[in-house]
């Protein structure tokens, strides 16, 4: 099987200091948090003391930056860094409109309990997807990024606080100290190995077994069951050649959950850096000939995995009427 060169999706900026979304060098995590997006992006301003004076605007002196900024285009999906409840929000400003009194622009706060809040600033107009009081899952798409408030360009400012209203360094913390596998996005995977890396030959009307292994390179554990909100179960899907949309498979076997849902992981839980195995049948339903079936992983009701980093996973299949060749 061919695996193509993984793609690293990021937004470049002249002030970039660190590319995140991959394992970082921060201290050991103190909670099950991940960074709040699904693809790596370029950090443009770090947490802590800074000489940058554009935020907050008009002060003209070095200040304490209580979060981390990442450059990203308007409308980029923002993920909840952990499960919680939507708190205060603002979404009435338009992109490029500002400043506002506190500089955040449009924003949403998520309460995680135990006096922990995550804050997401500079969102696009109407960019908060849920109302105050809505429960959200870890890794759930909760907002869309923008360019509102005191913002020099489209980006996300992400903070972690011990109160929802504090704007000083007395109650904020370095976001990287809270994250599992520091610097990782919630759901990511890379291709590891499979039972047959070449072409599978299937006798027409019969079923063969195939397995593929993926390494969990994201920050959240994979599970075969959803969380309390019905989100997060990791599934292997049959997809189109782009790896984005589901596609009915001609090779559905009896052990598939449906014509598009192939299987879940053999293990009940696959933590960060662990290997998950997906075992499934391939049935020779079509007429004799050569075919290609494409696959991708999905965190159910949360987000697709990056098809490029998985390796554009597909299986070449030959359906043989009586297995004269290659069997």
Give a written overview of the molecule.
- This protein has 327 residues and is mainly β.
- A hairpin with a 3-residue loop joins strand 22 (289-299) and strand 23 (303-304).
- The protein has one helix at 307-310; strands at residues 18-20, 41-45, 48-50, 63-65, 68-71, 77-79, 84-90, 106-113, 116-128, 135-136, 141-145, 155-161, 172-173, 189-194, 200-203, 207-216, 222-223, 234-239, 261-264, 269-270, 275-283, 289-299, 303-304, 314-320.
- The protein folds into 2 domains: 18-177, Glucose Permease (Domain IIA); 189-320, Immunoglobulins (Immunoglobulin-like, Sandwich), CATH 2.60.40.10.
- The longest helix is centred in the last third of the chain and has 4 residues, at 307-310.
- Mean pLDDT is 83; it is low at 1-30 and 54-61.
- Strands 1, 2, 5, 6, 7, 8, 9, 10, 11, 12 and 13 form an 11-stranded antiparallel β-sheet that branches. Strands 15, 18, 19, 22, 23 and 24 form a 6-stranded mixed β-sheet that branches.
- It is elongated and about 75 Å long.
- The two termini are 16 Å apart.
- It contains 1 helix and 24 strands.
- Helices cover 1% and strands 39% of the residues.
């Amino acid at each position: 099987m061919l695996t193509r060169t993984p793609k690293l999706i990021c937004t470049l900026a002249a002030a970039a200091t660190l590319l995140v979304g991959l394992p970082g060098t921060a201290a050991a995590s103190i909670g099950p948090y991940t960074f709040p997006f699904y693809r790596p992006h370029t950090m443009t301003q770090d947490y802590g003391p800074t000489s940058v004076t554009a935020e907050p605007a008009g002060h003209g002196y070095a200040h304490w930056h209580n979060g981390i900024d990442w450059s990203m285009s308007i409308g980029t999906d923002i993920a909840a860094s952990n499960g919680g409840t939507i708190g205060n929000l603002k979404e009435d400003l338009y992109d490029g409109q500002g400043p506002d009194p506190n500089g955040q622009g449009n924003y949403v706060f998520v309460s995680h309990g135990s006096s922990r809040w995550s804050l997401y600033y500079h969102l696009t107009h109407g960019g908060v997807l849920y109302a105050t009081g809505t429960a959200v899952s870890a890794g759930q798409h909760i907002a869309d990024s923008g360019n509102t408030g005191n913002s020099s360009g489209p980006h996300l400012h992400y903070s972690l606080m011990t109160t929802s209203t504090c704007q000083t360094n007395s109650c904020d913390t370095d976001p990287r100290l809270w994250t599992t596998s520091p610097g990782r996005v919630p759901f990511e995977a890379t291709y590891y190995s499979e039972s047959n890396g070449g072409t599978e030959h299937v006798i027409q009307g019969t079923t063969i077994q195939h397995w593929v292994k993926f390494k969990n390179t994201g920050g959240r554990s994979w599970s075969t069951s959803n969380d309390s909100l019905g989100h997060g179960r990791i599934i292997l899907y049959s997809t189109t050649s782009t790896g984005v949309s589901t596609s009915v498979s001609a090779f559905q076997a009896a052990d598939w959950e449906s014509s598009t849902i192939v299987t879940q992981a053999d293990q009940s839980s696959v933590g960060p850096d662990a290997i998950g195995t997906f075992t499934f049948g391939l049935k020779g339903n079509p007429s004799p000939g050569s075919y290609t079936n494409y696959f991708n992983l999905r965190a159910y009701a949360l987000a697709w995995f990056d098809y490029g980093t998985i390796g554009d996973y597909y299986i070449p299949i030959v359906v043989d009427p009586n297995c004269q060749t290659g069997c």
